[in-house]
Amino acid sequence: MNDNVFALLVHDQVEPFESLRRVLRELSVTTFSIGTCKQAKDLIRQCQPYIVFTESALADGSWVSILEMAESADVPVSVVVVGSHPDTHYYLSAMERGAYDFVAPPFEHESLDFVVRSAALNAHHRRQSLTMSATGRYPVVA
């Protein structure tokens, strides 16, 4: 499902996001980067990304702010928190708050591909469920 997957990257640090962006590009994931929660709120509504990758602290908020935006978005979005290094406590905190996943460098193709595919499918299935509940029938896929 990496075909046509759009991911929004919310960060104001170059690394580890430049490394993440490079691997996502190799996985055929279209990305767009922004640096603030305000921009994220506007773009989540306008672009409806399947996945939002966010760093922990932003100039006007944090990953928790991004999770809250995703929860109130018009369509389901999977949020993946990006750490600068593996951290079990941080991972558990992100998962408990509703993040889809937590990733940290080094970004390996196989593991990141799994995260992208499963996060995108999760958002896709939740969007189909919304369509089903709104119309009473499943959407027709052309």
Q: Tell me the β content.
A: 15-25%
How many separate structural domains? 1
Write the CATH architecture name. Answer: 3-Layer(aba) Sandwich
Q: Which residues sit in consecutive blocks of at least 5 with pLDDT less than 50?
A: none
SSE run: EHEHEEEHEHEH
Structural class estimated from helices and strands: alpha/beta
CATH superfamily: Response regulator
Number of strand segments: 7
Give the termini separation: 16 Å
Most strands sheet: 5 strands, parallel
* Quaternary assembly: single chain
Describe the structure.
- This protein has 142 residues and is of the alpha/beta class.
- The protein has helices at residues 17-26, 37-47, 63-71, 88-97, 109-135, and strands at residues 6-10, 30-34, 51-55, 57-58, 61-62, 78-82, 101-103.
- Helix 2 runs parallel beside helix 3 (63-71).
- The relative contact order is 0.17.
- The mean pLDDT is 89.
Keywords:
5-stranded parallel β-sheet; 142 residues; alpha/beta; Rossmann fold; two-stranded antiparallel sheet; globular; 7 strands
Topology:
Layout: E1 6-10, H1 17-26, E2 30-34, H2 37-47, E3 51-55, E4 57-58, E5 61-62, H3 63-71, E6 78-82, H4 88-97, E7 101-103, H5 109-135
Helix pairs in contact: 2-3
Give me a quick take on this structure.
By secondary structure, this protein is α/β, with parallel strands linked by helices. It has helices spanning 17-26, 37-47, 63-71, 88-97, 109-135, and strands at residues 6-10, 30-34, 51-55, 57-58, 61-62, 78-82, 101-103. It has one domain (6-135): 3-Layer(aba) Sandwich (Rossmann fold).
